[in-house]
Amino acid sequence: MVPVTIAEPAVRSYILYSGILALKVLGMAALTARVRFRKKVFANEEDTKRSKGVVKYDDPDVERVRRAHLNDLENIPVFWVLGALYLTTGPSSELATWLFRVYTAGRVLHTIVYAVKPLPQPARGIAYGIPYLIKWYMGAQIISHFIGSL
Ligand SMILES: N[C@@H](CCC(=O)N[C@@H](CS)C(=O)NCC(=O)O)C(=O)O
């Protein structure tokens, strides 16, 4: 059994990048609110009163930010699970740190090219694909490490 302790640089790196990603997910709510107020487009009647906005469910800019938020929710919790389990396989600290770092950078870039400053494809596909492959790699490492130990 590989000991997973806070003294391990890879564990500290996981905690750091997990925290950054959690704040990044929270930031999506602020980004959505910013676009809603800029466009005066809201989801509920009571939200429209102070800013004289309208209820609208198909504003393209709001929907874009909402899709980016949803995409985070489809991906980042999976990283938390796989990243934590990956640490139990005894990876090199350097490799684990780079995987967590690149993953985090990819997810931040995904939001930028999707919702902040939309860029033509394949910008979003790449920003999505690299973190996606990192998760598959960590998942495969977990399975290959533990499959023989049952
Ligand atoms: N739920 C996603 C699954 C596939 C995915 O996440 N694709 C990436 C790269 S093209 C993406 O940014 N999709 C846009 C989105 O989720 O709104 C979708 O419907 O597209």
From TrEMBL:
Alphabetized UniProt keyword annotations: Acetylation, Endoplasmic reticulum, Membrane, Mitochondrion, Mitochondrion outer membrane, Transferase, Transmembrane, Transmembrane helix
Catalytic activity: RX + glutathione = an S-substituted glutathione + a halide anion + H(+)
Enzyme class, broadest EC rank: transferase
UniProt cross-references to Gene3D superfamilies, sorted A to Z: Membrane associated eicosanoid/glutathione metabolism-like domain (1.20.120.550)
GO cellular component terms, semicolon-separated: endoplasmic reticulum membrane; mitochondrial outer membrane
The family this protein is said to belong to: Belongs to the MAPEG family.
Protein name: Microsomal glutathione S-transferase 1
